[in-house]
């Protein structure tokens, strides 16, 4: 079996841990527990190796603390990651504005790494407002950003899709 390290990055309280719990454990809790340092989860997914067959890939998902104090040691945790999910909270514009900073930090450590962007908590805003945010942030200047998704750890919207898509791209 192939193992690939991916990291979850973003500001504090954007839903990184909740997205992982929804994907790995099929659970959601609105009880907020701040991640301290890093927490590693695993999940095996089947990806198409070629048109004829699928192969199992074990994702080692590193959930990185969102604190600004953590930024100094974050590069050592990002080392060796094949991809990241950069997460923002659509109800907090400042977290969206910080997406580019997280992307740059990751690319400074892993210039060949691949990136997916999760606009999380999409169940908490109106569809028109969400569509405007998604249209505004396309990351066309970032060729390593392979996709943007409106996710909700609470409803499960696009959670499996974003992890599955990243797994397929890094293989």
CATH H-level superfamily: P-loop containing nucleotide triphosphate hydrolases
Number of domains: 1
Number of helices: 6
β-strand number: 6
Q: How is the topology of this model organized?
A:
Layout lengths: L1 E9 L5 H10 L12 E11 L5 E11 L9 H5 L4 E7 L3 H5 L1 H11 L4 E7 L6 H10 L8 E6 L8 H12 L1
Parallel strand pairs: 1-3, 1-4, 4-5, 5-6
Antiparallel strand pairs: 2-3
Please tell me about this protein's structure.
With 171 residues, the chain is α/β, with parallel strands linked by helices. The protein has one domain (2-170): P-loop containing nucleotide triphosphate hydrolases (Rossmann fold). It contains six helices and six strands, in the order E-H-E-E-H-E-H-H-E-H-E-H. A six-stranded mixed sheet has the order 2-3-1-4-5-6, sandwiched between helices.
Descriptive tags:
six-stranded mixed sheet, 31% helix, Rossmann fold, 171 residues, alpha/beta
